[in-house]
Request: fold
Amino acid sequence: MRLTWYGHSSFLVEASDGTRIILDPYRAGAYEELSYAPIDDHADVVLASHDHDDHGAVDTIAGNPITAIHPREMQVGAVTITGIPTKHDEAGGSRRGENTVMVLDDAGFRLVHLGDLGHPLNAAEQAAVGRVDVLLIPVGGFYTIDARVAADVVSALRPTAVVPMHYRTDRVTSPIVGVDDFLATQERVIKVGSPTLELDAGSLPKERTTYVLEHAR
Reply:
């Protein structure tokens, strides 16, 4: 599986059979405090954890893809997609609405994108997520879980690889924080130096490792 971070919470996942899946595409220019460049790419499938413009711009992606906001159960090529309902805040969704955790199972290799998760996962939600090879997790706080809660979620889900997202970069001026607070909670950190990471069952690290990517846009 090949993973490319466009920026914010948006990723391209290239599955083992070549299926291209874009997760949580942002709408460039929709928010003054978010200045990532447009996602000028194509996909077979575009999925969004919720319909806010910094995550749910499924109509902006080329290639006439299958699209779904709050996906539930889908099969696309070798990839089984499962959506788990959660909330965007700690108030039952009353402040920011619903969020969907997206689980992608590529022939047994499991990637989980937490979307704009706004609360710790309870036991039932953890069980629904199941085993995690790669976890994409928001860490910037304010609109989502912060570094401390993110660290607790990592401990609960026990992924092998962790990729932080939804944090302040040189393209973000909103009141979220950078990645360093979260990195301070993690024992093994690799700064990849590029937007792309390739992992499969044979190349996963022996111990949990956090990979920091550069945004592609």
Q: What stands out?
A: The mean pLDDT is 96.
